[in-house]
Structures are given as C-alpha cells and as structure tokens.
Amino acid sequence: MTELLPTIEIETGDQPECAVIWLHGLGADGHDFEPIVDALDFTGLPAIRFVFPHAPMRPVTINGGYVMRAWYDIVSPDFSQRREDAKGVHESAVQIEALIARENARGIPDARIVLAGFSQGGAVVLHTGLRHAHRLAGILALSTYVPLADTLAAEAHAANRDVPIFMAHGHGDTVIPYDFGQRSGELLQAQGYPIKWHPYFCEHTVAMDELRDIEGWLHAVLVRAGKPAEALPILHDAMRRYRNTQRRFEMAQVYEWMAQAHREAGDANGAASDAANADSIYQQLGARAIRAANRAAPGGLTSREVEVLARIAAGASNRDVAKQLFISDKT
Fold first, then answer.
1. Active-site residue, 173 included
2. What is the pLDDT of residues 67-82, one digit of tens each?
3. Residue 198 falls in the annotated catalytic set
4. How many helices (H) does the chain have, and how many strands (E)?
5. Quick one: residue 143, left, alpha or beta (phi over 0 = left, psi -120 to 50 = alpha)?
6. 312 phi, psi to nearest 5 deg
7. Residue from 24, 169, 204, 262 carrying the catalytic annotation
8. How much is the pLDDT for 209?
C-alpha cells in the first residue's frame, strides 16, 4: 500500500463535494499555492476541498545533487534533450493516485476531482491524469510540459480522452521555455485532447489575468461535473450577475458554459443560441480593442494597450484580444 504524502487541506465549505489536488513546483512545498484559495471566487459552486501535497525530498542533479522537495529528478536544464527521470515520474504518479483514492474514500468521485500543478507539479498531473482509469473533472497544468511524451499515446487511458485541459505559460519563462511548453500543448491537440492553451506576458509565475481565467475554468469544469440540468440554474444566476456589472467578457464565458451544459442536456438549439451569443460578444469586444488602439495618440499607449497591439499584430483571436483589454473592470 502506498504511503500517503503529507498534505495541507483547505475546504471552501462544509461537506465538500469536489476536490482540487494541487502540486507545487521544484523546491517549493504544499504551502506555495495555499493563497490561491483566497484569491479565487467560488460563488455558485459546491464546497471544494483543496489538497496541497508536499513532494518527497530527493537529490536534484541540476542543483548539484542538493536534496530538496521534488516530484522527480531533473538531469539537464536543456528540456529538448528529453533526459528524463522516468522512475521518479512514475513514483510520483502512484502517490497522486493514492491521493485520488483517498478522496474517493471520503465520498468525492473522480468526476468531481481536478488535478492541478505548477511547473514540475504540472508535468506530474498531466502524466497521471491522462493515464488515470476514471474520468476526472479536469487537468490544470501551469508553466509546464508533457513528461515522457513518447509513451503517452500507448499508455493514455480512454477514460480521459475528452478531459478538459487548461494549459498556461508565460512568454518570458526562462525556467521552462515558452516554446517547449507550447509544443507540449500542440502534442496534446494532435492526439485529440480538448486542450485550451493560455499564453500570458509573464515569467515563470502565475499572472493576475491567469488567476481570473483559472477561476472561470474551475467554474466551468466543476459545474459541469454535476448533471447538466443542475448546472443551468447556476449558470443563469451567473449570467444575471455579470450582466448587472457589465463585465462583457465574463458574460461571453458564461454563455460558453451554458452552451456546453445545453449540449450535454441534449438541447442543440439552446447550445447553438448560447454559442452564437458568446461569439457575438467576442466579436464586439475584439473590434472595440482595435478601435481603442487606433485612436490612441502616438507614444501615449498604456502597457495594456501595447500588449493588445502585440496580440493583434500576431493575429490573435478576438477572444484573446478581448480578454487582454477587457478582463479588468474598465469596460
């Protein structure tokens, strides 16, 4: 029997119905992401148990063999060489499976469990989640990559072929280069996984805009973890809340969640209507971003507008442009 890792647990309410098992990065510990719980809004969701495990202590080659908390050894800083510690990755996957089993024993099914991780922790949740034998609610992988990628196609379990995957990476990441993380996202897309890739203008960290996107994604996957008919009233309440505050981008996100819930409920017309509403908002906000950039005086651009212009120049979607300019309250 696998010995359970020591963990920190935070519950957002009594009798949790969902769980998020969140893995830290190299050299950190379970306390690293504790503040995330207070930073996110869980209004409308059932109580969630956040589980933050401490990785085992082990020597890490790139740090001169220094013993620290690590999910596996890192042999080389050059990720392109793919010199990977398969044994360490597999050992950590077994330990995460044991934490999932403990949540099952406490009454939370796999379909209401999210695996989340940052950096090395993100690599372990991708490895574990895609091979897990029962459908999970989702996989949240931040500033990371797919480890042991050559074995994924053969080892992946069919139960999580359609699991929602949120991957995010900073353009300025010098620890795990952005391009390397992006190639992992493309690998998953090529194998048919429904991944949502989120780029940010930051380094090896979690950006403020990223927090808001994580919040929206958690709402989507944890609401959807229940029955679609149960999800719709919650989404309609969210719709009214966002309309009252005129936060148009969030409105579009809620329309997307509603479309998914209607599809799962077998309501094709409702799904099509909600999807059209979301697309309309993204088009409006993307156009609004371009108008704002065009009328800005030369040399008078704010840092946010510069980011928007960079995304427009790179051919970003209206959704991406809209998010960058309108995710804050200045609508």
1. yes
2. 999 999 998 877 655 6
3. no
4. 11, 9
5. left
6. -60, -45
7. 204
8. 81
